[in-house]
Structures are given as C-alpha cells and as structure tokens.
C-alpha cells in the first residue's frame, strides 16, 4: 500500500493527493495516516509546497465526504432506515445505528461535524446524520473544512518532521496497514454471517 500511495503522490502531485483522500473517505482501508505523512515528507524534499499539500488533502477529504451528506439529505431518515433494515448488513448498518447517530447529532449539532472530522474511523460517517438532519450545507462544509484542515495539517507536519527517515517508517506502516485491512475484512465477514 505504501508503494502505491508513494507512486501516485510522486507522479501526480497535488491532484494525486486529492484523489487519494477522496478514495480514503470512500474506501477506509486506504488510510490518511499513510497518505498525508508521506505527502509531508515530499514537502521536506522540496518537491511540493507544505500549504499546497494541506489544501489538496483537505479538498480531497471534504469532496469524499459529500456523497454521504447528500445520501442522508436526499433519501431521508425513514428511507435510509428501511434500506438499512433490508440491506444494511452488507455495510454494517442497521436502523438502530441511524436512530442513535441522529439523536447524537441532534444533541451536538455543529460541534459533532467539526470534532468527528478529527477522529479516524468516524470522520466520514458523521456526514450521514448531518444530511438526515438537513444541516445547512454551508455550515456542514465550513465545519468539515475546519476539522479536516486541522487533521490533514497535523499528519502533513508529522510527515515533514520525519523527513529523511520516512523510508524507515515504511517497514512499520505497511504491516499496520495490512493488519487494519485484515481486521476490517474479518469484522465485515463476521457481521454478514451474524446478521444473515
């Protein structure tokens, strides 16, 4: 995974970072924790600009979360719950999850979007209840951009600090990435079998 991310960033630059971050939101096994630190490393080498990398990562990440917002907005809570009742086991979602997320979102509203964009694993999922709750799009967008910029900036800065030692980190990141991917696949299969 590391080599794939590295090749895209080195060959495409800023658009490659944005593309990877869009995919990271849609396909969680592609972790931003690999993408952005490597992009930060590239800035240390002088190939890309630090602020440009943060902008590309933020744009890609926010674009990747928009389909989930619109899913909640256009389909609505009752239809999503009905769909989750029939097919939700395939994406590990049930109507109770939607009710819980909606209640939580209603309690925390704007702060939920901002804070969740800083938390791996739920950064994208907060978009669904935001859409279901019909949160103002510009508020959703601005809070997503604010939270995402902090997260992306931190990861990019950490990559920049690693500098020339980043290649050594590859030995640790690849096994961790594969382990996380394996856990996700096993959890998914278990969930499908359990809810069959």
Automatic annotation (TrEMBL):
Species of the source: Rhodohalobacter sulfatireducens
Cell compartment(s), UniProt: Cell membrane
The organism's place on the tree of life at top rank: Bacteria
Domain VTT: 30-160
Protein name in the entry: DedA family protein
Lineage: Bacteria, Pseudomonadati, Balneolota, Balneolia, Balneolales
Pfam family, one: VTT_dom
Annotated transmembrane regions: 12-30, 50-71, 137-163, 175-193
PANTHER family per record: ALKALINE PHOSPHATASE LIKE PROTEIN (PTHR42709), UNDECAPRENYL PHOSPHATE TRANSPORTER A (PTHR42709:SF6)
Keyword tRNA-binding among record annotations: no
UniProt topology in membrane: Multi-pass membrane protein
Keyword annotations from UniProtKB, A to Z: Cell membrane, Membrane, Transmembrane, Transmembrane helix
Family matches, as InterPro entries: DedA_domain, VTT_dom
């Amino acid at each position: 995974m590391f080599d794939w991310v590295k090749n895209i960033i080195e060959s495409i630059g800023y658009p490659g970072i944005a593309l990877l971050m869009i995919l990271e939101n849609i396909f969680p096994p592609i972790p931003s924790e690999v993408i952005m630190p490597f992009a930060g490393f590239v800035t240390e080498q002088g190939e890309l600009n630090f602020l440009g990398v943060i902008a590309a990562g933020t744009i890609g990440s926010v674009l990747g979360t928009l389909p989930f917002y619109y899913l909640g907005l256009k389909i609505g809570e009752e239809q999503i719950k009905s769909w989750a009742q029939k097919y939700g086991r395939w994406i590990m979602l049930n109507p109770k999850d939607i009710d819980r997320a909606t209640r939580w979102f209603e309690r925390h509203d704007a702060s939920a979007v901002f804070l969740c964009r800083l938390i791996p694993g739920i950064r994208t999922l907060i978009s669904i209840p935001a859409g279901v709750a019909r949160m103002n799009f510009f508020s959703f967008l601005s809070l997503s951009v604010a939270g995402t910029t902090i997260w992306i900036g931190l990861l990019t800065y950490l990559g920049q600090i690693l500098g020339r030692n980043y290649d050594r980190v590859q030995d640790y990141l690849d096994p961790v990435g594969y382990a996380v991917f394996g856990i996700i696949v096993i959890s998914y299969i278990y969930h499908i079998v359990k809810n069959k």
